[in-house]
Design brief:
This protein is mainly beta and 733 residues long. Among the domains are: 1-18 and 305-487, Porin (Beta Barrel), CATH 2.40.160; 31-226, Immunoglobulin-like, CATH 2.60.40.1190. The strands form 4 sheets. The chain has a 24-stranded antiparallel β-barrel. The longest helix is centred in the N-terminal third of the chain and has 14 residues, at 2-15. It is globular.
Length: 733
Amino acid sequence: MLRLLCSSFIFLFLLSTSGQNEDKKFTVKFYSEIPEIDGILDEEVWNKAESASDFQQYFPLDSILAKQATYIKMYYDGTTLFIGVKMETSGDKYVIPSLKRDFRAGGNDNISLLFDTFNDGSNAFLFGINPYGVIREALISNGGGDSGGFSTSWDVKWKGEAKVFNNYYTAELAIPLTSFKFKEGETKWRFNSYRFDTQENETSTWARIPQNQSIYSLAFMGEMTFEKPLGKYRTPIAIIPYVNVISQKDFESNKATSNVKVGGDAKIAIGNGMNLDLTFNPDFSNVEVDNIFTNLTRFEISLPEKRQFFVDNSDLFSSFGGGRDANPFFSRRIGIATDKDDNSIENKIIGGVRLSGKLSNDWRLGLLNIQTEEDLENEIASNNNTMIALQKKVFSRSNIGMFFINRQSFKDYDFVAPEDQYNRVLGIDYNLASEDNSWNGKFYAHKSFEHNGNGKDLSTGAFLAYNSRMFNAFTDWVYIGEDFRSDLGFIRRTDIFKFVMGMERVYWPGNSSSINKHSFELFPIFTLSPSLNFKTTDYTIKGSWGAEFKNQSRLNAGIMTNFTYLTDEFDPSGKDDAIPLPADVNYTFTNAFVGLRSDRRKAFAYFIEQAYGEFFNGTQFSTGTEISLRIQPKATISLAVNYDKITLPAPYSSAEFWLVSPSFDFTFSKSIFWSTLVQYSNQRDNLGFNSRLQWRFAPLSDLFIVYNDNYFVNSFEPRNRSINLKLTYWLNI
């Protein structure tokens, strides 16, 4: 195993030297004029600014110029980057689903601008705007190779407006240079832009990106050169206090409380590349609730982090290890604890500090420390949670990262066992990203430390992926010892040796076909148990076909064969009186699936997926449907319905699971939003209502009214209820 991992490391290391050249450039001139940010490019300075044009089509073809032209002009005055954009269109029937900030770009009209300010091909800032002047910003990490490196939870103050004309629209953006991080004296940034044009059914980019790559991939960028070097700046200290008035009742315990909660955050820039973030008594009541799911597996399922404090530079902390099986740091573990009845409940965060960013062009540093509060009634200890991460860029876009994690209780509690007093993890990762992004990979080795550890406490792995126009392939190797433990991580299970392979053949029928591309994929997964003499405990062999049509609809179908050796009893029905499937028994079962997603540009859109086949020693039928109606730009109404039926032979229990989730999103203006989500799940025995009214009365300053209500499904008796009135204000000093 060690020899294999070392060989993989050497191979990944050598691949880092391949590359791709930048060939598109423009100059950002220095002018002192300050335009009125109204979306109209009528100031004389725009006639003097240099233009970036000649956008390349990305979809449906990636080999021709865009049918509709886009022109981007930029200049700066030493403190602010001003951007003027003109986008030609074939009409004025724009798709604008919402007036809410941080909109999703796909399926509607908009343009996004990407700035790689440290020229590292790994991290970038994104700013976007649509024809109605709705803006968004995002952070791109990990080279932009997949959706995991794209986060719109980042917020910063800037201005943007747009104006619609006959067969084109224009936009004006004013972005303070303090919104970026960059090296003092820098004269060059890497830059790209992508645009969605729904009327032409076209997606285009300034620097050409092949369709087999992500549209926000940082491997394919041009160059913007500043006429004068960028100087040192002082970023204002941002103080973000909040007041939250909350009234809630737990009907199970018949306890009602009302209180006023006060706290806040502070953001302090250290030089041109580092951020110091502080939080005191944080409150996340306004954060969007998680979408619930039906889980028919034996394992926990991870959910995305949505809390603002943990989002900035999150790739520094969360990109170690293998995300699905061996993630040593999962920030959602902080603020959640297990009570004496083994239930997961919220654990109050007292405060925390995060230092993160660039030490230099090649070095990044991350330090996170969070203190949680003790809860003696629920037998939850106060814990200090620390992670230190150091990352060094190597070659063009690859890096080596090291980390140390410590979760520790500093007091002696009667209810805390000695082995639970602390948990520490130390590790190193090598992350490969070739310059043209055709090769990606990872090699990692992590070790945990805890009281009376037994020695089988390693987590190692190697991953390598090749991405080309016609052929994609990857391999993934994971080993997790049975004693490896990361209390702040996401480890689905230990005592595994897992081998995964993926092979995909892609076909491009050409412009005459209604199909843009289609592909065949073979995806085998094998999991062995080292403690059982490397006995195979699970395998899945999946074969599938998928097609993407030129009207942006998608179709996929496939078949899966699964093998499971149950090491423990398992009851998929979740019934109290059910007889579980016995352990130490092999199960082999096969099922087939088909799914269809419609054109998202249409006012009415849908997604349908069905599956049927064997399930352990019985059968399973699953169907899922999601429909949405857009009443642009004010409202989107959607309904998701999932139904799972498992039928097992006697004496085992069969079950039917329903998950019904209607949602309503209304944007009355660019500052007033109302969203409501209803979630019914008989598996969780819960009917939940979450309704959130938001008024953005000033830049990044909000008034929230949040109502939550939960009921037991069978009896329809109330479970818990709360209402929040929360005020936040962003103050620059």
